């Protein structure tokens, strides 16, 4: 069965957002509210496989401002999770069906925490999967220094060298040693990345979202007091990686037991961007978590 998909645009302050609705909004009920899938800077395309496993629910995906089909009109400066949270508020309100369930991945998980902090009444359940808010981990000084170094490398040398450092950071297991950020970065060619600088500085991750996302400081008091049910999730294969460690640190501060999902940081992927996780078991686990109240 092919699920009906409609695409819409929404003008917000400084951007025009594009979002997709799978299924008819008229079918939404109290037991199965809209399921909103969000990433950052990953756009809606990354959730194609995961959305296909929820054809019994209305599923909404969107491209965050500055990525995919969502065009910024506010320049190319750095963005914050609070700005993304306001975009999400406008999107949920535009849907017009009250509180939604949210599955949020990576930077989207950070934006989801910001959304619940600011507008808890709009979210019934937030499943925040590996939010890379690195200032929450015990080795936060080393982690933040590494993020700053990646940003400086991007401004100085371009995408290839900076992205190579970013990939290496995400793959690093365990606490970062002192001086990690000062060590030479890997060869971009080893990751299939360009070694020449093309002069552009508008990359959605490295130029627009990296520092705002990784530097976000959750308001733990507001999250604990929110009416939203907050679930922190980590990947089974992500143990000791920085994004998973950040998720565990946030869960601990909130007094929550983290939910362990199949696979890794992109465990829901079914070939999008050439990457594969375990999307069917991942979707089964997500359904179980969402159905638990």
What are the SSEs and their pairings?
Blueprint: E1 5-12, E2 15-22, E3 35-38, H1 48-52, E4 59-63, E5 71-72, H2 81-95, E6 100-105, H3 107-118, E7 123-129, H4 140-157, H5 159-171, H6 204-214, H7 220-225, E8 229-235, H8 242-254, E9 259-261, H9 279-291
Helix pairs in contact: 2-3, 4-5, 4-6
GO molecular function, one term: hydrolase activity
Protein name: Alpha/beta hydrolase
Pfam families: Abhydrolase_1
Quick take:
The chain is an alpha/beta fold and 293 residues long.
CATH topology of the largest domain: Rossmann fold
Distance between the termini: 30 Å
What top-tier CATH class of the largest domain fits best? Alpha Beta
- Major sheet, described briefly? 9 strands, mixed
Order of helices and strands: EEEHEEHEHEHHHHEHEH
Helix content: 25-40%
Number of domains: 2
pLDDT under 50 segments (min length 5)?
none
- State mean pLDDT (0 to 100 scale): 95
Output the CATH homologous superfamily of the largest domain.
Alpha/Beta hydrolase fold, catalytic domain
| Tally of individual helices | 9
Shape: globular
Quantity of strands, as a count: 9
Strand content: 15-25%
Any guess at the CATH architecture of the largest domain? 3-Layer(aba) Sandwich
Evaluate the radius of gyration: 18 Å
Secondary-structure class:
alpha/beta
InterPro entries: AB_hydrolase_1 (IPR000073), AB_hydrolase_fold (IPR029058)
Domain AB hydrolase-1: 33-177
Keywords: Hydrolase
Protein name: Alpha/beta hydrolase
Overview of the molecule:
- The chain is an alpha/beta fold and 293 residues long.
- It folds into 2 domains: 5-133 and 216-291, Alpha/Beta hydrolase fold, catalytic domain (Rossmann fold), CATH 3.40.50.1820; 140-211, no CATH class.
- The protein contains 9 helices and 9 strands.
- The protein has helices at residues 48-52, 81-95, 107-118, 140-157, 159-171, 204-214, 220-225, 242-254, 279-291; strands spanning 5-12, 15-22, 35-38, 59-63, 71-72, 100-105, 123-129, 229-235, 259-261.
- Strands 1, 2, 3, 4, 5, 6, 7, 8 and 9 form a 9-stranded mixed sheet that branches.
- Strand 6, helix 3 and strand 7 form a beta-alpha-beta unit.
- The model has no long low-confidence stretch (mean pLDDT 95).
- Keywords: Hydrolase.
- It holds the Pfam family Abhydrolase_1.
- Residues 33-177 form the AB hydrolase-1 domain.
């Amino acid at each position: 069965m092919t699920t009906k998909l409609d695409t819409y645009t929404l003008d917000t302050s400084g951007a025009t957002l594009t979002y997709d609705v799978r299924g008819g909004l008229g079918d939404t009920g109290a037991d199965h509210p809209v399921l909103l899938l969000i990433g950052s800077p990953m756009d809606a395309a990354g959730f194609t496989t995961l959305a296909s496993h929820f054809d019994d629910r209305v599923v909404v995906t969107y491209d965050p401002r500055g990525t995919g089909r969502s065009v910024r009109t506010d320049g190319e400066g750095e963005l914050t999770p609070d700005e993304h949270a306001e975009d999400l508020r406008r999107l949920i309100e535009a849907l017009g069906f009250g509180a939604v369930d949210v599955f949020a991945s990576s930077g989207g998980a950070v934006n989801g925490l910001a959304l619940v902090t600011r507008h808890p009444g709009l979210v019934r359940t937030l499943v925040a999967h590996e939010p890379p808010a690195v200032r929450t981990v015990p080795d936060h000084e080393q982690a933040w220094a590494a993020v700053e170094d990646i940003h400086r490398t991007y401004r100085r040398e371009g995408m290839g060298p900076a992205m190579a450092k970013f990939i290496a950071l995400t793959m690093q297991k365990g606490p970062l040693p002192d001086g990690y950020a000062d060590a030479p970065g890997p060869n971009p060619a080893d990751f299939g990345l360009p070694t020449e600088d093309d002069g552009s500085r508008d990359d959605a991750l490295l130029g627009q979202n990296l520092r705002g996302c990784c530097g976000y400081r959750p308001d733990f008091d507001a999250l604990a007091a929110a009416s939203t049910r907050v679930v922190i999730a980590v990947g089974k294969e992500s143990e000791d990686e920085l994004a998973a460690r950040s998720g565990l640190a946030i869960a601990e501060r909130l007094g929550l037991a983290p939910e362990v999902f199949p696979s890794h940081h992109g465990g829901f992927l079914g070939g999008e961007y050439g990457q594969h996780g375990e999307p069917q078991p991942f979707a089964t686990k997500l359904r179980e978590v969402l159905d638990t109240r």
